[in-house]
Amino acid sequence: MDIRIFRKKDGGIVQLVDKEIMQDWPVELPLIFIEYIREKQLKTYNDSKVEKEVSNYLDEILKDVAVPRLISVLEGNNAEETISALERIEELSKKNIEMTRPIKPYLDILLKNNNKRIGKLAQNISNNFQKDERNKELAKKRKIMREKEKEFLIGKISGGEYAKIRKEYLTLKE
What we know:
The protein has 174 residues and is mostly helical. Helices cover 69% and strands 6% of the residues.
């Protein structure tokens, strides 16, 4: 069977590609597929039973197809295949870092690889993760800063307190 079908209460169906077909996909594509369905599609199904079934199926794909294939390529001896996969993962990490999360535990191993190209690609991906973490931290601080700014404007906090908070925010921003 080429597709997996999930039946909704309202008579509709959700069709997803069968995990056996994914065995032939490029190594990073099942990860992209899983993240896309989780982030963009799952909530549109409007059926909690189907959402749970699809989520379980995505976990199954991750466990049976995506992670084992990724590990076999990343830990394999074929440097060209590893480089090719890492180049595609690096490009994806620039666009949407969340889709590349499953590779994060393997970056430390790849950073120690003797092949300079593999090490450089792993470092670039690692840098993209660090940049994303920093952006998330900045977003939190920005939100706090807006709240403190409002409090300062209405007189809830003093100028000294506001200046201290603003200084911390600006230090982090640099």
